[in-house]
Design a protein that fits this description.
single chain; globular; four-stranded antiparallel sheet; alpha+beta; two-stranded antiparallel ribbon
Length: about 120
């Protein structure tokens, strides 16, 4: 699975943040997040994980910690959007035998929203 881009709203200190993990229209194989402590590296990874779980599971997974994730400086709800891409090919370039009928590139868009009062 490749992350094409995540967009985060009101997650900790990220009021509105989007990052593109593509180069020349294709998902990058590797992305390295580098920064000082407190620059939202872990927050961005948490956002990607929440988006990957989908809106049906996010309240189960994040329910107890939502109050620590959202930006408490305002009343706006937390929202995470992301675009993922899946490939049927492995590292060796061979197609996975169980995925013969799936297109070469399969995409998924995810939107996760958590209301301010959610717990």
């Amino acid at each position: 699975m490749y992350v094409r881009w995540p967009q985060v709203q009101n997650l900790k200190r990220l009021r509105l943040f989007t990052v593109d993990f593509c180069h020349a229209g294709q998902p990058r194989m590797w992305t390295v997040l580098i920064g000082e402590n407190g620059t939202a590296k872990t927050t961005l990874l948490q956002a990607i994980a929440l988006a990957a779980t989908g809106s049906k599971q996010v309240n189960t997974l994040a329910g107890p910690i939502v109050k620590h994730l959202r930006d408490r400086r305002g009343s706006a709800p937390l929202a995470i959007d992301a675009k993922f891409e899946f490939s049927s090919q492995g590292r060796d370039g061979e197609n996975h035998p169980l995925l013969k009928k799936i297109p070469a590139h399969l995409g998924l868009s995810s939107h996760v929203g958590l209301e301010v009062g959610s717990t």
